[in-house]
Structure formats: structure tokens, C-alpha cells
Recover the amino acids of this structure.
């Protein structure tokens, strides 16, 4: 049997799982990190959805005067170094504006830990709009989009740090008027910047309505990451989102949920959709307003428990697909 035939057979076996080797992808995609732009092929193992610091006080009261940046560094840095020691090379920080986003602090933590960190632009409309600034209700989708476009072109909050993704959030169920406006704004900003759209979208109704809005705006489903998709109880809805081309993100991996997440990944792989799945912890969470930031959740379960479980349930190629290949595809900025 020829080497070429062996290679075709190997690639065919991966395709049956929905696996696409990174070497077969366009590898010239780029993504902005807090320390500069890099090629997506250089991202290594990626945690797609984490939080280093959050402030839930509300958009009208959030302020950097409410915390000590040095203390945040002392608390968060050991966990970032641990993730790096376990093999992680890139972490996507998903705390939006008006919820505690601090790009300069992320840059400091990136430089100290050796981890690439990706910041975001966009607004969070979940939690009944508590974290939306007043102007979000008055301005048009195009006005909001221009704010996010400006951050991608000029930098976040007066720095030269550029966002690598858009992060929005909508409430479950049918899209409210303000949530629909956020999705429309994300579509406009995506067309101008190529940034992927990561949306806190717990259930399938909101996810598929968001995809409908993007489609009407001329944005391909591949630009959309359905954040917290593991909370959707209907497997058919998850598969349908993948079939539409969206990214389905199971980002609640913790010590008590490894088995559930392995089952979800296995279900998607069996359906041929492993190539549309992203994973992460949704951990960290230095809570501004709590003494010492409260209980900081580490970024280790994916590497210590989830990866071995996926290796046993599927194979090593599936691990690479979930943590290297898929994130590289999802994060690549597209015109």
C-alpha cells in the first residue's frame, strides 16, 4: 500500500469524526493578542472562554477604583502559570466592557505568565441588561458597531491593545429588541473587522435566532460562537447549529462536569461535528467587591482530567482538534 493511500485512509478516518487536521487548514489567519498580533497557527493549545476578573455591580457603577490591580495580579498569576505548565499557550479572556474588562491588566498578566491572552470588544446584554451602558439603549446598531470597530482599529480604552474577538451576551428565549440590536451591531462590526462573535447564548432559541439575524446581515454562521452551549438540553439543536456552520462551545468544564462534557463531545463527534466544537472552563473569576476576590477557580481541569478522558473516549487527534485546530479556525480574523 502506498504512503499516499495510507494518508488518504488516515484523513478519511478523521473526517468520519468531523476532525480536520490543522495542516489542511489555511494557516495564514491572524488574531490580535494583548501583546501583539500572531498567526493562528502559533496559538498552540487554547482555552476559549475564561475570566480573570469580573465586576457584577452594574454598568453604571463599575470602576477601576473598586479594586487593587496588584492584588488581582497576585491572585490570578499563579493560576495562569499553572495553565502554562500544563500545556496551555493561549487564553481567551471573555470579560466584556462594563463588566470589569481591563486590557492593560491583561497585558501585564500575559507578560508575567508567558501565556498569550486575547481581549474582546462588544457589549453584554444578558442578565436583563444590567451590564449595558445607557447609550446602548439609545444608539443604533450601526452606532454601537462603530464603537467596537474603533476599538479594533485604534485600541481599547486609550491603549494600543486590540481585541481579538467580539463578546456579546443575550438573554435566553426569543431575542429582545436590545439583544437583537446587539447581534445586528456584531454583524456590522464583523463585516468591517473580521472579528469572530462569541455570544453568551445559553439556549437554542436565542442561538438560532441570532444565527438568523447574522444570515440576514450577510454574515456566515462560521463567525458565530454559541457560548455556554452545554446548557442546551436538546442535542438536536446543538447538531443543527453545527450543521449551519456555527461553533458550539462547551465551556463549563469543571471537576464535577467532566463526564457530561465528554458525553457532549462524543455525541457531536458521532454526528460528524467534532470540527465545530470548542471547549473551556469558564473559570477564574476574581470577583471585584469580594474580599481577596473571593474563590478563584483554576484553569487545570481541562488538562488534568478532560484531555485524558477525551483521549480514552476518542483519540489523540480529537484532543488536538478541540484544543488546537478548532480554536485556530474560530479565532482567525476573516474579511
Amino acid at each position: 500500500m502506498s504512503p499516499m493511500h495510507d494518508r488518504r485512509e488516515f484523513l478519511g478516518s478523521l473526517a468520519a469524526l468531523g476532525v480536520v487536521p490543522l495542516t489542511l487548514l489555511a494557516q495564514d489567519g491572524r488574531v490580535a493578542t494583548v501583546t501583539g498580533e500572531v498567526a493562528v497557527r502559533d496559538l498552540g493549545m487554547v482555552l476559549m472562554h475564561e475570566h480573570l476578573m469580573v465586576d457584577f455591580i452594574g454598568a453604571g457603577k463599575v470602576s477601576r477604583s473598586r479594586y487593587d490591580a496588584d492584588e488581582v495580579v497576585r491572585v490570578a498569576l499563579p493560576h495562569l502559570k499553572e495553565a502554562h505548565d500544563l500545556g496551555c499557550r493561549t487564553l481567551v479572556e471573555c470579560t466584556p466592557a462594563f463588566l470589569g474588562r481591563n486590557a492593560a491588566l491583561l497585558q501585564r498578566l500575559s507578560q508575567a505568565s508567558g501565556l498569550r491572552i486575547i481581549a474582546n470588544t462588544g457589549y453584554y446584554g444578558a442578565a436583563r441588561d444590567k451590564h449595558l451602558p445607557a447609550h446602548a439603549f439609545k444608539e443604533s446598531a450601526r452606532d454601537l458597531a462603530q464603537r467596537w470597530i474603533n476599538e479594533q482599529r485604534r485600541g481599547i480604552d486609550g491603549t494600543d491593545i486590540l481585541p481579538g474577538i467580539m463578546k456579546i451576551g443575550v438573554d435566553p428565549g426569543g431575542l429582545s429588541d436590545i439583544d437583537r440590536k446587539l447581534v445586528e451591531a456584531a454583524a456590522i462590526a464583523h463585516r468591517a473587522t473580521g472579528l469572530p462573535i462569541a455570544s453568551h447564548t445559553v439556549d437554542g432559541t436565542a442561538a438560532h435566532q441570532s444565527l438568523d439575524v447574522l444570515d440576514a446581515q450577510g454574515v456566515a454562521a462560521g463567525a458565530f460562537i454559541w457560548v455556554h452551549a452545554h446548557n442546551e438540553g436538546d442535542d438536536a439543536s446543538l447538531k443543527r447549529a453545527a450543521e449551519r456552520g456555527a461553533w458550539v462551545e462547551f465551556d463549563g468544564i469543571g471537576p464535577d462536569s467532566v463526564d457530561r462534557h465528554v458525553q457532549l463531545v462524543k455525541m457531536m463527534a458521532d454526528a460528524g461535528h467534532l470540527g465545530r466544537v470548542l471547549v473551556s472552563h469558564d473559570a477564574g473569576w476574581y470577583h471585584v467587591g469580594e474580599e481577596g476576590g473571593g474563590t478563584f477557580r483554576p484553569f487545570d481541569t481541562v488538562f488534568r482530567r478532560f484531555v485524558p478522558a477525551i483521549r480514552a473516549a476518542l483519540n489523540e487527534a480529537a484532543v488536538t482538534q478541540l484544543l488546537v485546530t478548532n480554536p485556530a479556525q474560530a479565532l482567525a480574523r476573516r474579511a
Remarks:
- The CA atoms of residues 111 and 265 lie 33 Å apart.
- Residues 1-26 have pLDDT under 50 and may be disordered.
- The longest strand covers residues 45-54.
